[in-house]
Amino acid sequence: xxxxxxxxxxxxxxxxxxxxxxxxxxxxxxxxxxxxxxxxxxxxxxxxxxxxxxxxxxxxxxxxxxxxxxxxxxxxxxxxxxxxxxxxxxxxxxxxxxxxxxxxxxxxxxxxxxxxxxxxxx
Length: 122
Description:
By secondary structure, this protein is mainly alpha-helical. It has two domains: 1-37, no CATH class; 39-122, no CATH class. Helices cover 60% and strands 7% of the residues. It has a two-stranded antiparallel sheet with strand order 1-2. Helix 3 (53-74) packs across helix 4. The chain is globular and about 45 Å long. 1% of the residues are buried.
């Protein structure tokens, strides 16, 4: 899975050309158009299984927001995201809490450090 992600990132970077902002705008416009033309209940099948398109969008929003926050932190910026986007992220993550170590989760949610990390994503 990680090799595939790395390969797609390299291909995207190579395909961006000299005007990266224009390329990013085009990609974003294409994504918005595709979302607008896809029914919420259309089934999306991917490596982890199948789910409704609207639920798949929540997982993609979660990835986008989390990676954006990581980039902000890596650049020394205060991490910020839109309240609506964070509501989606927290809803997705909270739906997965049954996968977490309950002790590590309790410590993480209260800002404490434990002997082991808490990660609902596995």
